[in-house]
């Protein structure tokens, strides 16, 4: 969810694979996202398929991703928080070229992190909380 929201907004674009013959690489294949385990994508796809069988065309992949992230954090002992539903899946083509400048890196300074989080409308407290939650992911 973190890797999705920080790039083009919480639009599910990190879930999208490239089309055969496409010259633009999708977000999910970048160096910054390669450590996301394949089974994480599988869980989202299975949840989406189950929801689609009951409510076809109603729930977005972006909502599934947000709910799954919230529930995983809660099951790991973290807080349960409300998730607004009604997200739209991205209409923009997911682009690998947008990932690097929008994701924190191991060598980021605290000033780099504050600037990045601030550019997303987030506070220093958000930085600390999301960094800790990211460790669980």
Automatic annotation (TrEMBL):
What is the name of the protein in this document?
peroxidase
Q: Which UniProt keywords apply?
A: Calcium, Disulfide bond, Heme, Hydrogen peroxide, Iron, Metal-binding, Oxidoreductase, Peroxidase, Secreted
Q: Which reaction does it catalyse?
A: 2 a phenolic donor + H2O2 = 2 a phenolic radical donor + 2 H2O
Q: What class of enzyme is it?
A: oxidoreductase
Q: List the disulfide bonds.
A: 5-10
User: What does this protein's record comment on cofactor binding?
Assistant: Binds 1 heme b (iron(II)-protoporphyrin IX) group per subunit. Binds 2 calcium ions per subunit.
Does the keyword Iron feature in the UniProt annotation?
Answer: yes
Q: Which residues bind Ca(2+) 1?
A: 4, 7, 9, 11, 13, 27
Q: Tell me if Ribonucleoprotein is a UniProt keyword of this record.
A: no
Q: Which residues bind Ca(2+) 2?
A: 135
Q: Which organism is it from?
A: Zinnia elegans
InterPro entries (alphabetical): Haem_peroxidase, Haem_peroxidase_sf, Peroxidase_pln, Peroxidases_heam-ligand_BS
**Database matches in PROSITE patterns:** PEROXIDASE_1 (PS00435), PEROXIDASE_4 (PS50873)
